[in-house]
Every structure is written in C-alpha cells, then in structure tokens.
Design goal:
The complex is a heterotrimer of chains A (223), B (539) and C (325).
Chain A: H1 25-60, H2 62-70, H3 74-100, H4 103-133, H5 149-183, H6 193-218
Helix pairs in contact in A: 1-5, 1-6, 2-5, 3-4, 3-6, 4-5, 5-6
Chain B: H1 18-22, H2 27-55, H3 66-102, H4 110-132, H5 146-150, H6 155-182, H7 195-227, H8 240-274, H9 281-294, H10 310-338, H11 347-370, H12 372-378, H13 382-412, H14 418-445, H15 459-486, H16 529-534
Helix pairs in contact in B: 2-3, 2-4, 2-15, 3-6, 3-7, 3-8, 3-13, 4-6, 6-7, 7-8, 7-9, 8-9, 8-10, 8-11, 8-13, 9-10, 10-11, 11-13, 11-14, 13-14, 14-15
Chain C: H1 16-47, H2 64-93, E1 100-107, E2 110-114, E3 120-122, E4 124-128, E5 132-139, E6 144-148, E7 153-157, E8 163-168, E9 173-179, E10 192-197, H3 199-208, H4 215-225, H5 228-231, E11 250-252, E12 258-260, H6 263-271, H7 294-306
Classes of the chains: A mainly alpha (223), B mainly alpha (539), C alpha+beta (325).
Bound molecules: heme-A (HEA) (2 copies), dinuclear copper ion and copper (II) ion.
Amino acid sequence: MAHIDANGHAPQEHHPALQHHFHTMAQQLEASVLGMWVFLVTEVMFFGGLFMAYILYRNLYPDAWLAGSHELNEVLGGANTVVLIVSSLTMALAVRAAQVGSRIGQVVNLILTLIFGTTFLVIKYFEYAAKFEHHLVPGAHFDPTRDPAQQLYFSLYFMMTGIHALHMVVGIGILLVMLRKAWKGHFSAEYYAPVEVSGLYWHFVDIVWIFLFPLLYLIGKHH
Amino acid sequence: MNQAVKEPNSYLDAPHGVASWLLTKDHKRIALLYLISITVFFVIGALFAASIRVELLTPEGDLFSADLYNKVFTLHGVVMIFFFLIPSIPATLGNFLVPIMCGAKDLAFPRINLLSWYLYLIGATLTLAAVALGGVDTGWTFYTPYSSMASNTNVTIAALGVFIAGFSSILTGFNFIVTIHRMRAPGLTWFRMPLFLWANYATSLVMILGTPVVAITILLVGAERALGFAIFDPRMGGDPVLFQHLFWFYSHPAVYIMILPGMGVISELVAAVSRKQIFGYSFVAYSSLAIAIIGFLVWGHHMFVSSQSIYAGLVFSIITMIVAVPSAVKTFNWTATLYKGSITWDSPTYWVIGFMGLFLIGGLTGLFLGSMGLDVHLHDTYFVVAHFHYIMVGGGVMAFLGGIHFWWPKMTGRMYPEVAGKISAVLVFVGFNLTFFPQFVLGYLGMPRRYHAYPEEFQILNVLSTSGAAVLGTGYLLILFYLVASLFKPRNAPANPWGATGLEWEIPSPPITLNFETDPIVTEDAYNYAGRARKAGEK
Amino acid sequence: MQSTFPLFPQAASSIASDVDLLYFFILAVSSFFAVLVSALVVYFALRYRRTHADEVGHDIHGSIALELLWTVIPFILAMVMFFWGADLYFRIARPPADAMEIFVVGKQWMWKVQHPEGVREINELHVPVGRPVRITLGSEDVLHDYYIPAFRVKMDAVPGKLTTMWFTATKTGSYHIFCAEYCGTQHSGMVGQVIVMEPNDYEAWLAGGRSTGTAVENGEKLFTQLACITCHKTDSSGRGPILTGVFGSTVDLQDGRQVVADENYLRESIMNPQAKVVRNYQPIMPTFQGTVSEENLLQLIAYIKTLKVAAPATAPAAAAPRGGQ
Ligand code: HEA
Ligand code: HEA
Ligand code: CUA
Ligand SMILES: [Cu+2]
C-alpha cells in the first residue's frame, strides 16, 4: 500500500504507509476500521440468508433436525469451539502487540493463531470424512432409509459449516500475509491498521461458529 | 485553475498506456472503464430486446424456437439488470463524482475500487460464457425448482457470473459509505452535501445489506444443481417459495439500487437547470434514506399469488403503499424547485422533463401492482413488464443519460452538439412511450409475460410496441454516435459550462489526477445559487 | 367472440367488475397526479425560462406546510388503495363453502383437469355458469400458474403443496386460460380454454364425458391398490391411525405440536410421512413420493375427505385457507 506514488506526491514528513488520498494516519485508520465493519455487515447478511432457511426448515421438520443433530459429534464440535475461542484470544493479543509496537509479540501470537486456525480445519476435516462414511452427504449417496427431510438438514449443515470453513481458509491466508509483514517489522504504534482489521475479521469468523455450534450440534439433543 | 483546455495534468493524459488504465487506481479512470463496459452490455442487452420485439411482431412464434426466445429474454433481463442498470449510475457517475463532491482526492479504497471493476468483468465474462455455451432459460428471477431441477441450460455458470458481479456491487457500496463517512472536506457537513451524495449513500446501504442475501441464495441454487444438495427441492420437503422470499429480499431493494442514484442525478440536474436551491432539501435527502430502509420490507409484493400466507401479503401490501410516499415527496419537491427558477432549455433539461413524465407513470403503476386484489389479475402480465420498463428505462436510463449529458464535459473535456442532444431526448421519449404504453393495455387484457407466441387479438398492440422500439433504439444509437464523435474533437469544455454550483464545477474539465490542487474547504450549503449571483457572473 | 383489437378484457366472473372498479379508481388517482405534475413541470419550465445568462432562480428553500400536504395526501390515497385492494383480495382468496370442487394439476406443459364426477380433460375446463367453483391446484414438476383473465383470477401451482382458487362464472362462452408462471420451454403453449356452460348443458356434457370413475371412487381403489388399507383399517387393529373423520380435525403430533388436518396436511402425510408423525404411532409409513402421481394424490385426498364419522356432532370446518403457510 505504501508504494503508490506515480503522481508526484511529495512524501514530506508523512508516514511512509500514509496513502496519498488521506490526510492523516488517524483518518486512514478510521477508514480501514469502518470499512471492515461495513464489510462484516455484508457478511452478517450473507450468513443471514442461511440462518433464515435454517429457522424455516427447523420449524417445519423438527424431527429431522433432531435426528440430524444426533449424527453430529458434539465432542469434536465442542473442541473446535474451544480452539476458536483461544485463537480469538491470541489474535487479540497480536493486535495489542501491534499497537504497542512489539514485533516479537505479533509474530508469536500470529503463529499461535494460525496453529489454532489450522487445528480447527483439521478437526473439521475428520468430521466431514465421517459424514461421507455414514452416507450423510446429501445427493445420490444419501442414506435412502432416512427421512428425506434430513437431506435438508445436512445440506444446510454442509453449506453453513462449509462456508464458515472457507472463511477460515481466507482468514489463514490473511494472517500469513500479516505474519510476513509483522516479521519484516512493517507495523508500529503509528501504523497497525491491517493487523487490527484482520483481527476484526478473525473475531467475526469465530462468532459465526459460536452461533453455528449450538444451532447445529446442541439444540434439542436432551430429548 | 481556470480554463480546462490543454490542462497538462488532466487525469486523461498522464500517464498514457494500456497498463496505466488497466491498473489505475484513479476513481475517474475506473469510472470511465465502467462506462465503457456497461455501454457494451447495454448494447448487448438492447440487441436481445430488439430480438424480443421482432419475434413478437406476429402471434405465432415463427422467428425463434420457444427455447431460443426464452434464452433471449432471460439474457436480456440478466444483462440489463445485473450488468447494466445496477452498476450504471453508481459505478460511472458515482465513481467519478462521489470523491469530488466530497472534496476528496479519491475513494477510501482505490484498489478495492479497481477490484470491483475486475470482479464485474469476471462475472460478465462468465455470463457471456454461459451464452456462448448455449444460453440460460430461467428468466432473470431464477425461480426454483425450475432453475435447480428442470432447466438443462447453463444455469450454474450464469448464476456464478451474477454471484461474482454481486460482489463488485457490494464493493462499490462499501467504498462509497466509507468515503462519505470519513473523507468529506472540512466544512462539508451532512446537510451541506449535494443530494447526489445522499442518494448514493442510501443506494450503498441497500447494496451492502441486500446483495449478500442474493449471493447466498444463488449459491444455494448452485449447490443444488452442482452438488445435488437439497435446499428448495419439494421432493425432499424443501420449499420452492423460500427461494422467492430470499430472492426478492434482495431484488426488491435492488430496484431502489437502480432508481435512487437516478433520483440523485435528477436532484442535481433540477437545481442546475433552474439555478435554484432545491425545494425542501432535507425532505429530499431523508426520503432517499426512507426509501432505502422501508424498501427492505416490501419484497413479498412480488408473491401475492405464490401461496405465501395471506396475512404476510397484507403486511407487504401496506408497506408497499407506504414506500411510495417518499417517492411522491421527491417528485413534488422537484416540481416545486422549478417554480420561479431560471430555467434553461439546454439538453439536460430535456432529460429531466422526460424523466419526470416517465418515472411518474412507472411509479404510479406500481400502486396498481401493490394493491393486492388488483395484482392477482396483473401479476406476471405485460402490465408488470410495462411498469418496470417505465421505471427502469423511463426513470433509470433517462436519469443516467441525463447525468451523462450533464457531466460529459467534466468527464471528457468535450461538448457534444446541443441540437443532437435535444433531438435524441425527444426521440427516446416518444419511442419509449410508443413501445411501452401499449403494454399496459396488453397486460390488463391478460397477456402473460415470457410468452413466445400469443393469441391473435393481441397482435396490433404488439406491432405498435415493436415500432416504438425501433424509434427508441434509433434514439439510443444517435446518442452513442454523437458522444463518441465528440471524443475525436479537441477539448473545448469550460470548467463550468452550465453555470452550476458544486465542487466538481470548480475544478478544470477534465480534472487533474488527484482532483484538487489545494484541498477544498466548504463554507456554504449546496445549490447556493442566490449567494452565487452576488459573486458576479462567472460562467 | 373476442374482437380482433380489444382494448379491455371481457368480464365474465362475479369478481371481475369489482376488480375493474378498483382499477378505474387507481387509474383516476394516477391520471390526476400524472397530469398535474406533468402540466406543472412544463408550465414552470416555459413560464420561468432563463432570460439572460447570469440569471439565477429565486431564493426559495422550502415549506413545511407544503411538505406535509404532499406527504399526507398521497399517504391517505395510498391507504385507500391498500384497504380496497386487501378487501378485494380476501374475497378472491376465500372460496365460499358451497363451491363445487375441481382438481387441476399443472405439468410441463399441460393442465390436467379432473371433475368430481370423474370426467377428465386436458387444457380445457368446462364449468357451469353461476355456480361457485373451487379449484384445487397441484403441480407435478415446477411452478405454474393458472390464470383466467376474463375472471381476473390466478394462482400459482406449487410443487410440494396444494393451492386453491375460486370463481363464479357469470357469462357463458369460452375464455383463455394461460400459464402465467414461467415453467420452461413451452410455457407459452401451456394455454387452454374455460368453457362456461348453462347448468343443464354442463350436466349433459358431464354425462357425455368418458368418466373413469369419480375422484372418490378412484381414490378408494387406490387406497386398496397401494395397500394403504393394510395399515389404515376402520378399527384400531391397523398399524396406522384410523382415517375416518381425520379431515378437518386437529391432530396431535409426536413432538407435541397440533395441526389441523387440511388438504396440505393430508398431502404431506402421504408424500412425506415423517415430517409430521402422529402421536403414539411409529414413523413406519413409507413415503409415496414418486409412486403416487399428483393426480392420484388428489383422488386419495378426495377419498379420505369422504371418510366421515357416521353422525358427526359438529361438522368439521371444510374450507382450507388459500395456499399453505
Ligand atoms: C427501478 C426499478 C423499480 C422501481 C423504483 C419500482 C418501484 C415500485 N414498484 Fe416495481 N418492479 C420493478 C422495478 C421497479 N419498481 C421490477 C423490475 C418488477 C418486476 C420484477 C419481475 O417480476 O421480473 C417490479 C414489480 C413490481 C410489483 C410486483 C408485480 C407482480 O409481479 O405482480 C409490484 C407490486 O407491488 C411493484 C410495485 C412498485 C411500487 C409501489 C413502487 C414504488 O416505489 C413507486 C413509487 C413512485 C410513485 C408512486 C410515483 C410518484 C408519486 C406521485 C406523483 C404522487 C402520487 C402518489 C400517490 C397517490 C401514492 N413493482
Ligand atoms: C435496465 C433494464 C432494461 C432495459 C434498458 C430494457 C430495455 C428494453 N426492453 Fe426489457 N426487460 C428487462 C429490463 C430492461 N429492458 C427485464 C428485467 C425484463 C424481464 C426479463 C425476464 O422476464 O426474465 C425485460 C423484459 C422485456 C420484455 C418482455 C419479454 C417477455 O416477457 O416475453 C420486452 C418485450 O417487449 C422487453 C423489451 C424491451 C425494449 C424494447 C427495450 C428498449 O429500451 C431497447 C431499445 C433498443 C433497441 C431496440 C436496440 C437498438 C435499435 C436497433 C438495432 C434498431 C432496430 C430495432 C428494431 C427493428 C426493433 N423487455
Ligand atoms: Cu406452466 Cu408456465
Ligand atoms: Cu418490488
């Protein structure tokens, strides 16, 4: 971002990361943070469509939903919830480290966050594999002895968790970029907007999971 | 910063080269890239329209097979909505003007702005690929289960194209919101903002809140088709009507994405052509927000006969009626602005008057459709087709063309021949009415839309409509011709050819790369023509 | 019977003139505003033409009184349109209890009609004049929409559920039926005629038709053929619930909910039996999805609807609401 400048914008005493169309670092930070919030609003609406479908069908087919949630492994799901919550903590610590300008703090915490994020995906992989084995993936191979409405449940399960996992993958990509920049010492107490904004994204993805976990794995199970 | 002629530093001049355009982060260049792309798509969509009209000259479906006709109107709708009208004003005039009107050097995220254009291109290319591979035949509404189970055309590819184009729209809205919140010049308070900014702000809200929902909906259809998932499939107990709810949750607000920026353009133009403070500024500003917000609660008016609950229908109907009121407020305020104005008869004025007439008819016929008992008869007939063309083409496209005629000198540094501007406006107005007015009659008679062959008694009205389309098409071609021709002439536009207020008119035509040599400070309300008169007659 | 250049549709049902009246009302209001605004715009534009290059308009900023005026008046008019339209819609949506019932099934690309007496027809619909007719609509594949412009009624046929519409024809003659919901290649070919006849002509037509058994008779046959009867017996010895009197009753479900057994419930019980399992029964009923066509389904439902308790103390409420939920 720092190197746009074919337009003869004299750097003067400006911070090298200040883009030519902003007046101050503060304005630039505010714009980035607001931008990320606006983006997260679009994400909420994106998942919102899935949640609407979930609510409607859950109401129509409570039995199928119950049967579906019995097929999910709440131990693995619970473990993943813990993993993500811890990763949110390390992410927050990474942002904090960036704000105070601690390079080591950023690098360590970003690496930890990356490890937790990957752990989540690995666990998710095992869960998915089990679904394939048990013929619970909607489509031609779906267990024909089951109530067809359970296909609705598993379709939504895969869409919701799949899109969530995709967000995790994107998040990991972003964090890798941040890690590289942090390693090179790009960030400082004056300039840490990218880390802060990535953190917002990461927390959002965690929060989505905090909704998915009870809705898909837990609700109604005590019956 | 006076005469624009031979301004060396203009954004058009430095630097040259294809790469400098394709990798540009300058909002003005991106606006032009968008302008070129949407024009290409308008032409493609218009050729599809011409095919529709020629086919409908005779009651038998003799020119095309039924299958081909279905693909033609589907692509006409998809191209016109997603690749022309939705990006039209925001991505071209909006991209060009929002930062300048804010007194900023660029949008908040220039690279994301460029990304949005590339996403648009990828989406558009995919959709064209779907055409090349044999087309799509679901109608622009993609209703399930036809789209998810029955159609054996390239629904998945086209849907993916629309999905990606959706993100380009989200990114534009996102950029506008952040820019308007964070990058206004000192002194430019919310209530000093030009109404075009208000309108684009409201539009952006709809873009970021609505578009993700249609994105996920289309993704679900794709998952159903490509992966065999069951979401809307009635055989698994899925509800096809759920698709309609999700689709219209976006696509009704999307109609306001299409008209709000146009309303913003008209507000600017009305003030400029009458050199007068807009009547009831804050009412016009707030009504944009009201339309954007209330517009999210009316989607079910597309579904009065879809088997949705009748009580839901009641709620949707009453809110539909309520959302018409802010549009009425705008219309009356524009009219009142003309009162005791100093009204020029330059070509932008022609577009403003044309817009007012056609938008009125389009909007008022929305009331027929919003009234439930009447919509049972009118739903999915040509009455609906006429309604939305009046409002989208008569309103949206007229406003877009009006805006282009108004800001063309600023964007390109060239004037176009005034006479041609006026003739084309008249041609478009007359041709438009001849094309679409008969369709109201057809609709009340009961002619359903998406019909490739129709009973004989409807022929005369259809012939009228097709002949109108020829006039209308000629009008469009004329505009394309003289605007392109003007580019080959030397730059001759003064900084402020219309004698209008606004930051964009205080900088050279065309502007320099970073818009302002010194950062502007705003000290007065928008449209302060009275104050301006005292400043002595510059032009 | 249609002129070659009509400008207004025939009105041939009891509701048609009411719809037209509302149409004219909104047309009048709209014309008023369209003319008013256009006239003012053109008048102002001419009257206040710019006279010299430096002229500017008067310094007028607005008027709260005017804003209120042109917010409130359109609002009131819009509310009138809403209430009028809603009232009309309720009348269009709610069939009278004494309506005769005809089954219509949409299928790419034809309309299959089944009269209660068993006569079937395709793409045509014969009805007697002056009698309310209730149409129960189903679809075998995708969305369709049964539209009769001369009656000013239409309703979507939605796969996976049953919808209803009704009309009383008031003029003999034949009128267009259109499919108004896009349904694929031959959408524009999915058209037909309603033929409205004098009641005795209608009787004669019915008698002349090749009846393949009434809907109820066919339903009863199917009930045996498909072995429904092995589980649904008339006494409590079957593995499934007794179906006598079930239509219109309130059913207790396994998960504690209660539903009213309307046509859509019966439909779902057959096509997707696990969706709503009756309290105290096992979910053992197989699905008949794919085995039973939409038409057969309507016959089964017609049959189940006739299974009434011998002398019912209170007659079950018959009219199902339009559409589902
Ligand atoms: C730019 C696009 C646009 C806009 C702005 C609108 C605006 C409105 N639309 Fe339209 N509409 C479409 C595009 C648009 N529409 C499209 C594309 C479809 C079809 C989609 C498909 O099925 O393919 C459609 C379909 C559609 C339907 C569904 C019809 C059907 O399929 O059965 C309905 C029903 O209520 C409706 C209503 C309205 C209303 C009430 C408004 C209002 O917002 C209009 C408000 C404006 C005015 C009212 C005029 C100004 C007012 C006055 C001068 C004062 C007098 C006013 C009063 C007395 C109230 N529209
Ligand atoms: C911005 C949106 C937009 C725009 C600008 C237009 C522009 C036009 N549209 Fe379109 N239209 C839609 C959006 C739009 N439309 C949508 C969303 C649908 C619904 C699709 C669906 O159902 O899924 C639709 C559907 C639609 C139908 C209904 C098809 C059907 O239901 O069967 C018709 C029929 O007349 C039509 C006509 C036209 C015409 C004549 C123009 C004119 O403005 C075009 C004028 C241009 C030309 C005519 C071409 C150039 C001229 C020449 C080459 C000269 C020679 C011409 C002739 C001899 C005719 N459109
Ligand atoms: Cu059946 Cu259209
Ligand atoms: Cu709408």
